[in-house]
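TEACHING EXERCISE
Course module: macromolecular assemblies
Task: Read the component lines below, then compare them to the predicted structure of the full complex.
Student: A.B.
Group: 4
Components provided:
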Amino acid sequence: MLNIDVAKVAELINRHVSGANATAFLPEDTKKLDGSVTVEAAKIFSVVEFLKTNSELPFNSLHVISGVDYLEHMEVCYMLTHYDPASPRDLILKVRLTDRVAPAVDSIVRLYPAANFQEREVYDMFGIRFNNHPDLRRILCPDDWQGWPLRKDYVAQKDYNGMSVYPDGKMNFDDREFIVRQDMIKKAQQAKAQ
Amino acid sequence: MQTRWDVGEPEKPTINIETEQLKSDLLTLNMGPQHPATHGVLRIEIWTDSEVVAHAIPHLGYLHRCMEKHSENLDFRGVIPFVDRLDYLASMNMEWTYVAAVEKMLGTEVPRRGELLRILTAELQRIGSHLMAFGTYALDLGAFTPFLYAFEEREKILRLFEEVSGARLLYNYIWVGGVWNDWTSEQLDRVATFCDTMEEEAKKYHELVSMNKIFVQRTANVGVYSLQDCFDYGASGPVLRGSGLSWDLRKNVPYSLYPEFDFNVPVGTGEVGQVGDCWNRYYVRMREVVESIKIIRQVLAKLEPGPVMGKVPKIIKLPKGEIYLRHECPRGELAFHLVSEGDAKQPYRLKVKSPCFTHVSMLPRVAPGQMIADFVATVGSIDIVLGEVDR
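Instructor-supplied answer key:
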């Protein structure tokens, strides 16, 4: 992330978008880690609209939308960028979703067409619905796949259209990868139970 | 009535049909998943009206290998071979981007020779990748010979990479802290010879393809992306530069040792056709090959004996936090959103910003109104690798 003062961006958003409640996060070691701005999920459309159209700190392009599952909440991260050789800048804009059953946030496809595929991918991987998205379907998994693969408590379905997902005798379940995975699922389920 | 070939008065049709009222239904045509023009397993559902594309819908996921999920279960070093398999034609660049993200969070210093060798491999890989793009693009448009020319030169690069890393395509060569293996002076001499021959070859390619009348007619003014389209869809790399913006991360947001190097950023100028068309995207790539040669020559001049690996802890544990790091790869800007939990041996989340994924999402933008053959030219010109699209 480059050339961005997250505190200034948060202050700008708060001044122009009412109810956005933007908070800046700046890590202790800014050389190693990136800061971010978190806003209210309900206001994401107006915030992004403001960031795109304002004259002080415009962002003319959306790079990617990434989701992160932190168990107690999920985050959708919007990586905004400004393609301008004179003053390039990046911003990580986040919204926090506490509802795991039916998480939803407004779509920003009308502002950046790039969001179309990106939001579909977040929906595919995390089950986060994007309101007013023109074509919200799974994109990388098959349409009839069950579950949301990148959630931490995800357990893959046993069979898919009559095919075994983990065929007996063909998988090495003692592999380190599976052990780490099992620990992760156990941890997620414990967090869920509490 | 004017006929297409303008051969005078046409014969009167024997059946009296009002052609204006003849409105046919749209025909659905599946291009792919196994189709040479899609450069991998991409299916594009095309709705056609006779030979004109009315609508194109890309269907992705045929090569989805759950790379992001896998990486959450592997330690930080174990992810590198998986990153290789994203864009298998530019593995060195993929590795470097991921490793740079880990190094930044770790705060590792890379020795100068290691960093220079990274630039050397990345630029050689860029040439290799652009040669592949050049060869297959000409093949898409019906010219077979350039493909063989391109592979002859690319083979020299692969030979060198095979000698230093042990593999031809998926290297696992760039490690956290430096590179795995040093180059011998004999190998570096061969790189210098390669630069000389490649420069001559590039001129030959331009004579053979770039200004070829048939090639120009197939690509000029076809599949035009305006600069605004590129911003809207977040395009980068040769697509963005082909549309006329001088934007290269190596120049505009310099990382590594790139500020020390003298090179130009080729931009689409529309010598034939208009800015942002297929021909300009192709031509930007071909000029980038020459710029890469320039960089490689400077690397060779700067190289001095020294260590290639820095000091890295045996078990890598990153501080709690996140990072978003971008590098300029042959197909555009690759970026990693790496989230670390702190005190864990594996990434908490690794999101890949794939340039090809972005570029595939741009296809429906230009498809309506194109002829099918022009659409094939457009798909070829954005140079996608499906390993990176589907991850």
